[in-house]
Each structure stands twice: as structure tokens, then as C-alpha cells.
């Protein structure tokens, strides 16, 4: 009789999900998180906070894959198990924003800011939602908002303490790199998503070759219109060589195609840190800002592009569209 295969522990499944997520394999990450949730729910040592984090992780995978409805459901579940979890609030806000449910997005961004007033993504989100709601409902838009939950002081203190504890080991690693920042990396300190940049190590010849092969596989998938699969290839390529500008701009194009506009902005930011006048990065970031209804930033990017290439017809056409 063949032995029945023993189920993996939930911690191992969660780790496998995290690894897939880091390499852009969001579908596989979702599968591992789902298995981890199943195993933890069966466990006698079930901890609501651990379960809440698993739902939040799966929500992040759904969000990356553009499945905003499932992302919202998982964030609801996560916040029920682990109230006022900042990551779940920000993920749900981003999903609500993509679904054009601006009031709910505004409330989640504002709730996150009660917990930590320094979250750049929440400030940016609040500003975008204020613009969108003013356009939709006029000056009295605040009157139509549902009540914003009040975060108890005890919860804020506990979450701040947890964040400090979790952040401590991660902050020890990049310290040597931060002592000698590259000249290019001193300029773009303010990042839209509040992410601090660290120096990228120079890749080996072996890594460059591997990255180029993966990038070419991504390019072939783009030609077939398989943008999600191409994203995975470009993500794997960047793991081997995070200094290749065109891989970021190619992946940004794919993110635009699958309507993951924030990810497109992030990739263009990366490309522009390495090449401040990159035409493709400026144009694709402008396209993403247009879709995110951030017209001012879109126009700024197009003007910057036209300073480099004044007769760029695509940029001139897009500028004309957004000005209307």
C-alpha cells in the first residue's frame, strides 16, 4: 500500500508563497497561501493573527494579478482576524481604488494614517481620492463619506511596537550600503510608494547572461500578447540583473497592459533612477499616471520627455488628450 503523503506545515507553505511572490509568480503564490490557510485552519494551534497575515499575503497576490474583488474579500477576512493591520488596509484601499470605489479607498487610506502618519503611499492615496471625489461629488464630497473608524490608542501603540520589532532585523542589513550611496541615488529620495532605495550590487557575467536569456523569453511572450507570463520572466531576469533599464521599461509596458498601473509607475521610477532621460520610462509612467487620474504628474512627465525629444509624436498626442 503506498503511504499517504503528509501535508506540509503551514509555515513552509507560507514561505513558498513568499518566494513565488518575490519573483512575480503571483498565481503560484496564491496557491501556496491558499494551502497554508487550509493547513492553519485545521491546526490545533490556530492563531487569528497568523491567519490574518496569510489572508493579507494572498490579498497582495490577488492585487498584483489584477483580481481586485478577491483582494477585497481577503482583506476583509484579514482585518476581521487581525484588526487594523496596516498592510491589509493599504491593499484593500488600492483594490477599492482600482474598482473606482473611491469613498471606501479614502477611508482605508485615512485609517492607515491614524496608525502611522508617515506612510507615503497612504498620503498619496488620500490625495488622489480627494481629487477623484471632488470631481465626482463636488465640494461637499465629505458629507457623502461613511464614518471613518477611530483607531484606539492601545491598538496604535501595539502596532507601532510590532512594526518596530519586525523592522529591526531588516534595517541592519543595508546599513553598510547606506554609508556610501552612489551619486545617482542621493537625488531621488522622495519615492511615490514610500520605498527606500538601496544600492544594487553589480551582477556577475553569469547572471547577466541568465538575465538576458530570461528577458528575451519575456520579449517573445509580449509579441504573443501573453503579458502576465512576460511579467514573470522579466521579474526573474531582474533577480539576476537588477541594473538593466530596458527590463524595467519592458515590464512596465506589461503592467500597463494588465492594468497594474501602480506597478508600472514603480518600474518606471526604477528605470529613471538609472537613466533620468529615458523616453520609454517617461512615456509609460505618464500613461500610468493618466490611468490613475493623476493628470498633473502625467503632464509633468510628458513635458520632461518633450524637453529631451521635442518632436515625439506619441507624447505630443497624449499631452493633447490629457489637456482636454
Question: How would you describe this structure to a colleague?
Answer:
The chain is mostly helical. The chain folds into 2 domains: 10-148, Alpha Horseshoe (Serine Threonine Protein Phosphatase 5, Tetratricopeptide repeat); 221-323, Alpha Horseshoe (Serine Threonine Protein Phosphatase 5, Tetratricopeptide repeat). It is built from 17 helices and no strands. It starts with 9 loop residues before the first helix and ends with a helix.
For the structure shown, list the relevant keywords.
324 residues, mainly alpha, Serine Threonine Protein Phosphatase 5, Tetratricopeptide repeat, 2 domains, 17 helices, 72% helix
Write the topology of this structure.
Elements: H1 10-22, H2 26-42, H3 48-64, H4 68-81, H5 86-98, H6 102-115, H7 120-137, H8 153-172, H9 175-179, H10 183-186, H11 205-223, H12 227-240, H13 245-257, H14 261-274, H15 279-291, H16 295-308, H17 313-323
- What's the total count of β strands? 0
Largest sheet: none
Radius of gyration: 21 Å
Order of helices and strands: HHHHHHHHHHHHHHHHH
CATH class membership of the largest domain: Mainly Alpha
Share of helix, binned: over 70%
What's the quaternary structure here? single chain
In the CATH scheme, what's the topology name of the largest domain? Serine Threonine Protein Phosphatase 5, Tetratricopeptide repeat
Structural class: mainly alpha
- What is the approximate shape? globular
Total domain count:
2
The averaged pLDDT comes out at 83
> Can you count the helices?
17
Low-pLDDT residue intervals, each spanning 5 or more residues: 167-198
Q: Strand fraction band? A: under 5%
- CATH homology superfamily of the largest domain: Tetratricopeptide repeat domain
Amino acid at each position: 500500500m503506498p503511504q499517504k503523503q503528509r501535508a506540509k506545515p503551514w509555515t513552509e507553505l507560507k514561505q513558498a508563497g513568499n518566494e513565488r511572490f518575490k519573483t512575480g509568480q503571483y498565481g503560484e503564490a496564491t496557491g501556496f497561501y491558499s494551502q497554508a490557510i487550509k493547513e492553519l485552519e485545521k491546526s490545533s494551534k490556530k492563531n487569528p493573527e497568523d491567519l490574518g497575515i496569510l489572508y493579507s499575503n494572498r490579498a497582495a497576490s490577488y492585487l498584483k494579478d489584477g483580481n481586485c474583488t478577491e483582494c477585497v474579500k481577503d482583506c476583509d477576512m484579514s482585518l476581521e482576524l487581525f484588526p487594523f493591520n496596516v498592510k491589509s488596509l493599504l491593499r484593500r484601499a488600492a483594490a477599492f481604488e482600482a474598482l473606482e470605489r473611491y469613498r471606501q479607498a479614502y477611508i482605508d487610506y485615512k485609517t492607515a494614517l491614524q496608525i502611522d502618519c508617515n506612510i507615503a503611499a497612504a498620503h498619496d492615496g488620500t490625495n488622489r481620492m480627494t481629487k477623484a471625489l471632488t470631481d465626482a461629488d463636488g465640494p461637499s464630497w465629505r458629507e457623502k463619506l461613511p464614518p471613518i473608524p477611530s483607531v484606539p490608542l492601545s491598538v496604535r501603540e501595539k502596532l507601532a511596537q510590532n512594526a518596530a520589532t519586525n523592522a529591526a532585523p531588516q534595517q541592519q542589513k543595508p546599513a553598510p550600503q547606506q554609508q556610501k550611496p552612489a551619486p545617482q541615488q542621493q537625488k531621488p529620495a522622495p519615492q511615490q510608494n514610500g520605498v527606500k532605495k538601496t544600492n544594487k550590487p553589480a551582477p556577475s557575467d553569469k547572471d547577466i547572461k541568465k538575465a538576458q536569456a530570461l528577458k528575451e523569453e519575456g520579449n517573445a511572450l509580449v509579441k504573443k500578447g501573453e503579458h502576465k507570463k512576460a511579467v514573470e520572466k522579466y521579474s526573474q531576469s531582474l533577480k539576476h540583473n537588477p541594473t538593466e533599464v530596458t527590463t524595467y521599461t519592458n515590464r512596465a509596458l506589461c503592467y500597463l497592459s494588465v492594468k497594474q498601473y501602480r506597478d508600472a509607475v514603480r518600474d518606471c521610477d526604477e528605470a529613471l533612477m538609472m537613466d533620468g532621460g529615458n523616453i520609454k520610462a517617461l512615456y509609460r509612467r505618464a500613461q500610468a499616471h493618466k490611468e490613475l487620474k493623476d493628470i498633473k504628474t502625467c503632464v509633468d512627465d510628458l513635458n520632461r520627455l518633450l524637453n529631451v525629444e521635442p518632436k515625439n509624436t506619441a507624447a505630443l498626442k497624449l499631452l493633447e488628450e490629457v489637456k482636454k
